[in-house]
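So, could you explain this one?
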Amino acid sequence: MRLDTPPRTLLVLGGGGAMGAYQAGALLALARSGVLPDALFGCSAGGLNAAFFAVDPSVARAEELRQWWLDRRTHSLLSASWLARARGVAGALTTGRSGLFDAGPLRRLIAENVPAHDLCELRIPLTVTTTCLDCAMARHHDRGSVIDILTASCALPGLLPPVPLTCGPGRSGHLHVDGGVLCGVPLVAALATAGPRDRVLVLDCGLAPVTSAPGGCAAYPAGAPALVEEACGLVAIGGRSYVAPVESSRGAMDVVLRAFTAARAVANLAHVAPGLGDPRVRVLPHIADAWAAGVLDVLPEGPRDFRRTGDLAAAGASATERWLAGGGLERASVVGSGDGIASA
């Protein structure tokens, strides 16, 4: 990239199920402040948000996205009822299909909200991450079928069937599932295209956060000190330490989902950590930071808890507004050389 090229804003949106509502609130706050992306990178729920916003990056579209997350019809499509679960198990046993649930509703949801056939047709360049089962690698798609790629990026293994995609010469028909298996926060893909003067904004909305380090954010790896004074640019409330909620198991399916959440956190932390020290990176407040700062009073019980989407969207907007007012865009993520402390 030429040095006289105007600096760009690249926005990375990680996955997190119902926590996508928090992300939608943050997008609305960014848009209201005039911070609009020149390129988007998303995975799973973050991929859905990115695709929705890439159609028309504006305040009006961001508000539509927030309303979309509050709509009960969206909840029913993204979180299967007990009846749908029972039917899914019965169908999988009798037909031998590769997922408990039919991907048809999700595909229709995408078609209704993202009016484009190919990713390259969107107004803002979008890269969506999936996991290729045949290659055992994360794949970052910047062209190809919008519906197929977004469905694959959201296809939790075992729940939704894998989607055959082309991921390179001679690699057509490979099966792809949720990008969160290996790379739920595609920071690596964004940094690979970022110029020296670009800024890369990162918003992970997984309940088990992977985009922070001790000292700089409330959401940091286990074993760090219990209390912090700063929550990614927000002022933390004394005595409020964040512990990621653990869903109570209600059957075999929930055990599988909890296992996936744990595995995702480990894999994604390893994938994201090297990029957090890049001076072009800005980490927006995570749900954990909103909690530590008192912006969010009640945490959801898990990524399939859609009862608090309104609170999550409001918290995402408020936390991001505070972060912007505190100069978050000007502060780069800097990892200390000796003690591993980072500020974001």
Q: What stands out?
A: The first strand starts at residue 9 and ends at 13. The mean pLDDT is 82. The chain is about 35% helix and 15% strand.
